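User: structure tokens for this one?
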Amino acid sequence: MAQRNLSERKYVVFILMLSVGLIYLVRLFYIQVLDDAYMLSAENNVLREITLYPNRGLIFDRNGKLLVYDEAAYDVMLIPGRMESTDTVSFCSLFGISDTLFRDRLKKAKQYSWYKPSVFVSQISKTEYGFIQDQLHKFPGFFVQSRSLRIYPFPVAAHTLGYIGEVNDQEIKNDPYYKMGDYIGKSGLEKAYEPLLRGKKGKRIVMVDVHNREQGSYRNGKYDSLPEEGARLHLSIDYELQAYAEKLMENKTGSIVAIDPATGGILALVTSPTYDPNLLVGRVRGKNFARLSEDSLKPLLNRAVLGTYPPGSTFKLANALIGMQEQRLFTGTAYSCNGPASSPIRCSHNHYSPLQLKEAIEQSCNPYFWEVFRSVINNPAYPSVKASYDKWREYMLGFGFGRKFNTDIPFEVSGNIPTSEYFDKMYGQKRWNTLTIRSLSIGQGEILLTPLQLANQAAIIANRGFYYPPHIVNFYEVHNKTTRINYERVITPVLPAHFDVVKEAMLEVFEGEHGTARWARLEGVHICGKTGTVQNPHGKDHSLFIAFAPIENPAIAMSVVVENSGFGSTWAAPIASLLVEKYLNDTISRPQVEQRILEGNLNK
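Assistant:
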């Protein structure tokens, strides 16, 4: 019986061994004959996988004008494991780099990988490529890979469009799509729409000889894949208006934001001083970026969305609207003004007294709006000053102040509408009142708004109480499929009827006998506006202006900020008036006004 069991076990073991052997034979046959992937891996020593980078998406203005496109360029790649003895002097001479830079890049490439390619010399132009291609076989381990450069045919809207740069370690860690040497949007729309603009990489596998020269496609391109071009962005920006606005702001520091009130689309987003976006392209990018960063006028700062300013008299409009909504102010409400002798806030304008609301806006009377603010904060309908102030702040947030719009505008800041807790901390609970915070009545003190928020206030008034969040991209195209970007209408907490008297008063700022911007009026177009002169502790006052036009069916709303330039009517108002004329009439009928602005140099 024991002998029989032993014999049966031998058969079982034999069958198991035979089965395992058959499995291995079948697997070996599959690997060697059927599955090309293993052959590809075995032949990696004579094959090279080349990444095919897609063209980034084109960018157009609202009228279809091409603002950004790609042009062919090349990167020199290095695989350290295939590098042989290199004539460093010849290599550095060929590419115009120093011996120290060569060694630093070689060290970095080896740290990255001995067997994977990384960028050694980036963004070589088409002109340089022809000569370099004939010489590269002298340097084993190095090869050329096709890339592209961003080209800006018109040197405008640099901050809005943004720029691209090489990915850093953190960006690679955050998204496995990127490899060392890849490029990514670093600012502006290039950053905001990076996942769409970058497209999709492809690859090509080629055979190379011992001299590092390509010998053709591997297996007729069986394992290749084509790149997919990035999405095409169509902006709300109007190139003609943007270019003209930048021209008007030359030799001045400040910003312009123009919005289409009917959509929230930004027509122009200007910051000054600015720079030519082509300066941050290609091999000169690093040098130019350093130079721009060190410029004392800070041309890299996007003042339109990052700059914050006390809004000055432009803020009086919001206070008036809140006063009417709270039924603490009416169109016939009159307050006296004693001019420079007024207390606790003096008036800087000479005008008759007392004034009603419409005249107070037209002549920008400080004491009038102090009285309006005091009546709102001391409203007996609320149990305390803190409670009424919190309600006042709620209105301000409803206007889009003190918060971000969270659209496609990168690096936007929220500005500041101080909280009651802030005043509690500063003065102590129940130890502050309307008099303590009186500067808020005329847009000074702790209030800080961005030019973007100021322009949106103009759009709100133009629309009689609503706005669409300001944005830059109208729609994008991917594979001939169009996707429109829609934003929901935001209704402010002030009833539409209250805006009528404000609009009429803003019209009188241009057309009234005592209007503060009457010198900048435009015949045939009814422009509504409000000047603002903002105290600046570091120098001359800032000149602010908000406007929209025409009053009947507003097509443009804007803010203009000219730093260190004095009264709002001196510089900001005529600039706004010229921009309205350019946008609505496509011509300028007041060459003397234009010449004064163009020749004005405030950065001396």
